[in-house]
Amino acid sequence: MLRRNADLLPFIEFLRGADAIQRRRLRDRGAGPPYNQRMRAHVYVTLKTTVLDAQGQTIANALRRLHHPQVESVRQGKYFVLTLADTLTGEAAEAEVKRIASEVLTNPVIEDFTYKIDA
């Protein structure tokens, strides 16, 4: 059964009110910059070159079997993206990322890390 537009008006008004509430909530979440403008650190963790990378060798062998002979070797690792607080300066952010990477994200006996910080 088709409804007349007059019957739908209360429902439409309800939806408009819900949209206004959502816009207000998004506006009131904070004055910080949007996600893609925050300072982010990209941390790459790989096994040291002296450590046998069995998973990397398995991947390389699979690639050869799948007819990708141009890949000579594979080293597997981990990748982390850290979104940093807006209050950190460049030097403080770098020190914090180094500390986190060396103490939390890696096993310093068998892993190395590199990082890049985007402002």
TrEMBL record:
GO terms for molecular function: ATP binding; phosphoribosylformylglycinamidine synthase activity. Pathway: Purine metabolism; IMP biosynthesis via de novo pathway; 5-amino-1-(5-phospho-D-ribosyl)imidazole from N(2)-formyl-N(1)-(5-phospho-D-ribosyl)glycinamide: step 1/2. Its EC number is 6.3.5.3. GO terms for biological process: 'de novo' IMP biosynthetic process. It is found in: Cytoplasm. GO terms for cellular component: cytoplasm. InterPro entries: PurS, PurS-like_sf. SUPFAM superfamilies: PurS-like (SSF82697). Belongs to the PurS family. Part of the FGAM synthase complex composed of 1 PurL, 1 PurQ and 2 PurS subunits. Part of the phosphoribosylformylglycinamidine synthase complex involved in the purines biosynthetic pathway. Catalyzes the ATP-dependent conversion of formylglycinamide ribonucleotide (FGAR) and glutamine to yield formylglycinamidine ribonucleotide (FGAM) and glutamate. The FGAM synthase complex is composed of three subunits. PurQ produces an ammonia molecule by converting glutamine to glutamate. PurL transfers the ammonia molecule to FGAR to form FGAM in an ATP-dependent manner. This is Phosphoribosylformylglycinamidine synthase subunit PurS. It comes from Terriglobus roseus (strain DSM 18391 / NRRL B-41598 / KBS 63).
